[in-house]
Amino acid sequence: MSSNALYTDLSGYYDLMCSDINYQQQSASIHRLHQFLGNNGKQHLDLACGTGPHVRHFIDLGYQCSGLDINQPMLDMAMRRCPEAQFNLQDMTAFYLEQPVDLITCFLYSIHYSAGIERLKSCIASVHRALNDGGIFCFNSVDKHRIDNRLSIKHFAEFEGHHFAFESGWHYSGHGENQSLNLSIAKSLQPFTQQADVDDDADTSAHQTELWQDQHTMVATSFAELQALLAPYFEVHIFEHDYEKIVPWDLSSGNALFVCVKI
């Protein structure tokens, strides 16, 4: 098995790495929340939009969409997926829009890429400036005090004759304003469930596994701290991290969906 640092540019693996995500369900859920709590406007911006899968579904829901990311290769893929949308290469912690929007989303815990409290504050202020009156900001977050460093999420995919195993997990040291998101990608010609059954006499070169690993520094907050940062700008609603139904946060789970109405 060979091991390397994970590519800084994940654009080639991004869609495969997220193949288990129900983008349509997530987008439809936020659309419903916008109908209930927002101004029902149709101008939408997706922060950290990646290759644009959420943008695609919001377009199909009737929104005029734009996306923002710091990775140009991902934006190139997003433009091919969503030619109707506008995409911008900007940092979400300090972005500017010429025209305000009604709905800003930030999926897949990407709000935590604001690595540090000051940058998170700047992101929140940028979002507030970019919203029309009554507009909403929706994102999901993890509470630093409820992270289990032993847990990780793993799924498998196949692409171009190769088998991939993707794994990710949060880690928080217990103090400070940073946590890490640990990522790994394993690529093999053999299904990973069958690796142990490989014949010792077989051509080992055909069964070699490549492994990429990386660690991303993310901002760490509790939900109480996050509420305090949002309160000067928004009326904050916190829901369970459940895109099938709208349920208030139970005050104990470590994942939640924040819906913030501009005040």
UniProtKB/TrEMBL annotation:
Q: Which SUPFAM superfamilies does this entry report, sorted A to Z?
A: S-adenosyl-L-methionine-dependent methyltransferases (SSF53335)
Q: Which residues form a coiled coil?
A: none
The molecular function terms of the Gene Ontology recorded here are: methyltransferase activity
GO terms, biological process? methylation
Instruction: Please report the stretch or stretches of sequence annotated as the Methyltransferase domain.
Output: 45-135
Q: Which UniProt keywords apply?
A: Methyltransferase, Transferase
Q: What is this protein called?
A: Methyltransferase type 11
Q: Which organism is it from?
A: Shewanella decolorationis S12
